[in-house]
Give the backbone structure.
Amino acid sequence: MKEKVYVLDTNIILQNLQNLFKISDNKTNHIVIPETVLLELEDKKKLTNELGFYSREFARLLAKMKIKEVDYKLGFKVVKFSNDEINLDIIAKDTYDTQIEQIHLSESNDKRIIEVASIAQEYYKGAQTIFLSLDVYARIFALFKSIKTETLHDDKSTVPKFEFVKNVELDSSMFNTLDNKAVEEIDPEHSQENFSYIFESSDGNSEYAITHNGKLDLLKENDFKALNVKPVNLKQKLFTKAILSNMYDLLVIDAKAGSGKTLMSIVCAMRLIDLGYYDKIVYVRNSIESLDKGADVGYLAGNDEKFRIYNMALQDTLEFIAKKHLKKSENRENSESIESKISELESKYCMETLWPGEARGRTLSSAIVIMDEWQNSSENTTQLILSRLDESCMAVVIGSNRQIDNLYLNKYNNGLTTLLKHTKFEHPEIKMFAIELEKAVRGKFAEFTERIFEKRSR
């Protein structure tokens, strides 16, 4: 079998540095980094977000590797690095055919990277040279030069179908004995991912339940009596009951826009603090947004301005809750009253915002940690945040694979999907719950856009 030489695009490293080790496969394959990729990584080293972290991590990796040789060829140079797991070469051309155009910088860089891939085909004769990129346009440029291309194999993996809420038909006579009954007595085919149940009888009766410790816990009329904002549909109720039960360590919620996922998470977290189970709420959101590059959180000057944009979703949620708390006799349009109530809520529930760049070295205790928009976070960021939590914490991970803004992630390889996949297995360390919220409750505009746009994007 031919040795494979993988020429990497910048996005492969920025998606996850562990990709290098997977591609190398213990030196089974050879890795080539074009000089232009090195320059792009250098440019991102100072960013305070995840991209900056991976750029710095790559620099640390290079610094620890041994330089075996510098090979000077006509028109280009090859610097050869090695360690126990990776053989990695950096190739730089003396002059490039592609001129750098600032207004088309990304395209210019892509074409220079492809120039190096063409050199690699000649330099590693006898091996199979493959250009590896997440960017379909860059891969097309490579195909124009007759270079074999691939994307990450993870991109092609499938997201399994989940049955988080299972429908079971039962005789009405059994309904009175369902509460606290062992799940497998009712459903011998119960699987790990069946976290909730809908029981229906042929004569029109129905009951709903979540499961924990192998037993059924039925939805009851007074479950949400103490909440200032109440769930409005069945799956919201199941999700809310799961949080309020305080029986789960990690809850993973895949939810459409406008489904109330952030609102109900915050409301339930406040209730658990009122009951004395936790001391604070920590709200985490990654800093990669669907904004122009200049508006990325990492580019903004000053923490106040950074977090103003970063925490807008949280502030909208707190404003909604504050209005619900205000009495009708108080003028709800009085911005001073609303701001005062928001400040009161933030203080009472010790609300803290955190972005991944601040998490290293910290340990969170007695906190409900809400990880929002998690479809935009990588597996590494997911590990980083969850590993900060001690045994006194609960984590609620919420997001939507329909709204991925991170250019280096897709629905197959982000942190939300990874956690969803693991709901199919039992984990001795933690108790998990998961559900999908498909119904928009934000109002007519969310329902309208969902109906006319989502079908087209499938």
